[in-house]
Amino acid sequence: MKLHWSPKSPYVRKVMICAQELGLVERLELVRSVAAMLKPNPRLMQDNPLSKIPTLVLDDGFTLFDSVVICEFLNDLGQGTLFPRQSAERWQSLRWHAIGDGLLDALILWRNEREREAPLKPLIEAFELKTRACLEQLDDEAQALNEVPFSIGHVAVGCALGYLDYRFGALNWPEIAPRLAVWYEEARARPSFRSTEPVDG
Ligand SMILES: N[C@@H](CCC(=O)N[C@@H](CS)C(=O)NCC(=O)O)C(=O)O
User: Which helix (H) or strand (E) segment is 2 a member of?
Assistant: First the structure.
């Protein structure tokens, strides 16, 4: 299988963490692909008309995107438990998946906006407000994150926190969410997290 990949993308990181947790990394051929909102990539668009990463190309040529779909596909392939089947556990995990991804979506837009020549102040303020609210919510749920088995929800929340460290260090998020920070210290020690820390270049 071919994965359109970048070491900086937090959504790609979700896929790589799942692949590692499921013992599937060796089955992935990583293709370094540049995806930028303002510069659609024609080579990538042959596999994904949205020009986004991650995009997975199966051996028979069938393509899968986005990270939500790819992670679930890998979990099925590896017969894993990253997508719990039991009702209560399942919805809790998918909800964390959604909050992690939603936080990432806001952070990516925030970063795009702050890099513009004249960032729109109300937009920046709205992104910061939502980010703080997500962190406070997750801080209240830190004990639950600790108690239930590791799942896609933990992967997504962990990748969002990793992205905050990578691109929003000045926010000092552990100060906003100290209990979440304790949970994250343990999560980031997993080999799957350590080997996928975002890097420039
Ligand atoms: N919802 C998508 C988001 C993927 C995404 O936005 N990836 C970024 C890279 S971090 C991208 O490809 N951006 C290019 C673009 O928006 O055109 C997923 O979960 O895979």
Answer: strand 2-5
What's the gap in Å between 90 CA and the centre of ligand 1?
A: 25
pLDDT digits (tens, 9 = 90+) for 23-48: 999 999 999 999 999 999 999 999 99
- Mean pLDDT rounded to a whole number for the chain: 97
Distance from the CA of 147 to the center of ligand 1, in angstroms? Answer: 31
CA of 53, closest atom in ligand 1 = 12
Round to whole Å and give the CA distance between 151 and 38. Answer: 33
| Ligand 1 proximity of 11 Cβ (cutoff 6 Å) | yes
In the reported structure, the alpha carbon of residue 53 is separated from the centroid of ligand 1 by a whole-number distance in angstroms of 5
| DSSP label of 190 | S
Contact 106, 127 (CB under 8 A): yes
Q: Helix, strand, or coil here: 56?
A: strand
CA 52 to ligand 1: nearest atom: 12
Give the residue-averaged pLDDT of 191-195.
98
8 A C-beta contact, residue 78 and residue 67? no
What are the pLDDT digits (tens) for 102-138? 999 999 999 999 999 999 999 999 999 999 999 999 9
| Residue 39 per-residue DSSP state | B
| DSSP for residue 116 | S
Contact between 170 and 124 under an 8 Å Cβ cutoff? The reply is no
- For residue 86, what are the CA distances in angstroms to 61, 82, 90, 93, 94? 33, 12, 6, 10, 12
Which atom of ligand 1 is the closest one to the Cα of 68?
19
